[in-house]
Design brief:
- This is ATP phosphoribosyltransferase regulatory subunit.
- By secondary structure, the protein is of the alpha+beta class.
- The chain has helices at 4-19, 34-41, 67-77, 113-127, 140-148, 154-162, 167-177, 185-194, 199-206, 215-229, 236-247, 252-262, 270-285, 328-334, 349-356, and strands at 24-25, 31-33, 51-54, 58-62, 82-91, 99-108, 134-139, 249-251, 294-296, 310-316, 319-326, 342-347.
- A 7-stranded mixed beta sheet has the order 1-5-6-12-11-10-7, with helices on both faces.
- β3 (51-54) and β4 form a beta hairpin.
Amino acid sequence: MLTRLAIRAEAERAFAAFRATGAAEVEADLLLPAGTLLDLYGEDIRAQAYVTHDPDRGEMMLRPDFTVPVVQAHMLHGADPARYCYMGEVFRQEDEAPQTLQVGYEIFDRSAPQEADAEVFALFRDALQGLPVTPVTGDIGILMAAVKGLETTERRKSALLRHIWRPARFRALLDRFSGRAPVAPARAALLQHLASGTASDLIAAAGPLIGLRDEAEIAARAEALLEDAATPPIPAIAAAMLYDLLQLQAPARAALSHLQAIAPHLPAIAPAVATFAQRLDALDRRGVATEALPFEASLGRASMEYYDGFVFSFRHGTQTIATGGRYDALTEVLGRGASIPAVGGILRPHLMAELRGPK
């Protein structure tokens, strides 16, 4: 039977290894302002976190993870470069155990991001040594670069970028924007109606306004829908390469060769592919066999929405024992314009203890 002592022992062992690197130990508040998390993740976070109301501080959430408070603290008064480690409880409704112990490690370093990626991955590999886990890596930055380079409107690119972390919605948008999916009958009827008169005429004919949107917002939305309907499809070759990228799963070095081959058709990904190659070299220097290291281009797209580059997981079957990645853009959001490259990850000691088995 798994005991809290066994879980704590796994956590303490990993935490000691993280501290041995010289990382500073971090304590994060248990209650966090809900506004910050809602701004980052939208209302979806309510279905995952535990929300409460403080009479003085307003809406608060029990800590759903450590990364956001660690980034906030670093952007206020952190050194450059800096390494942090932490251990504590997190609270997520979607987990089997809604209150779980986590151990994590974060690097803030602008001098050599690919070396930092490799350092974090190797540190987690070593922490999981002896456990039956399989690593897998990815790079959301390549997919983001591909979307940003598409020959289409900024509005369409923004919609795709916004839904990268919602794979089904992303695929539906890509199908529509590339012309692979027909216009839904309800949408076609709406577009025909909007084209039959000015937005002001149609709003007036509809009767009194109901809801929070005013007439200007409704008119702007109508214009956006008509503009989108008149936009040509994403070029077929670029769309085909993007579909190919979404499905790419291969050993990392083979994946690199494939990405280098399709880069002429998606030239915007070339810098991200070069970064991928540099990261593989850095991983090789840390004893990671990148010829066999699994790579999945879509890894991390169902995670919280702050990873924007290298991502990794260590799995046992369907269980994710450890996960992490790069989140450079998050530091700019929480740093109010200031930013620093950052990468980190977390271990789940209760799953590690299960794999370790009874003593």
